[in-house]
Fold:
Amino acid sequence: EPEVTQTPSHQVTQMGQEVILRCVPISNHLYFYWYRQILGQKVEFLVSFYNNEISEKSEIFDDQFSVERPDGSNFTLKIRSTKLEDSAMYFCASQGVSEYEQYFGPGTRLTVT
Amino acid sequence: RKEVEQDPGPFNVPEGATVAFNCTYSNSASQSFFWYRQDCRKEPKLLMSVYSSGNEDGRFTAQLNRASQYISLLIRDSKLSDSATYLCVEVSGTYKYIFGTGTRLKVLA
Structure:
């Protein structure tokens, strides 16, 4: 069964450093998303991406964040200068055409020290 | 602000029990809803879609009540393996998911 994959599973970084989180969505899907979940809190929408551009972004997704689909298979989330409060699980999700179901990757746990 | 609200629980039930969760939403125009299951420190996994006509999948039944703006999930004959957090999802007009805080279920032997 096709699945969304994410790397790395755990990333530890120092405050102020740049991180890139990687995702490989399900191959025939066209809609891509990033969500985050701070420990003990709910899953929050960050950004949606379709047709090589951002469709929608939340208030959390400020100028420090960017997304890219560099090669037609990977979908990346970059945080330019990490802050302590960026520590969270980051989930990538993808969705096919004509359906509303989103399928989530296993997540990257980001720890900012 | 649009919110999806759930009772955080935990709901502690014995094996074999029937348990039900509700979730309320505030956007009356929303068309699609889902229940996801999340195990500790894992990703949300799709459990089932929610339709106005109701949706049943084995021991699980989901229902949408548009008049009162809530969705429900019923689990019959609870198994130990059903222990997890159940996430209610409202799909916005732009396809983004709005998650509830989740309801924790513990099924006890």
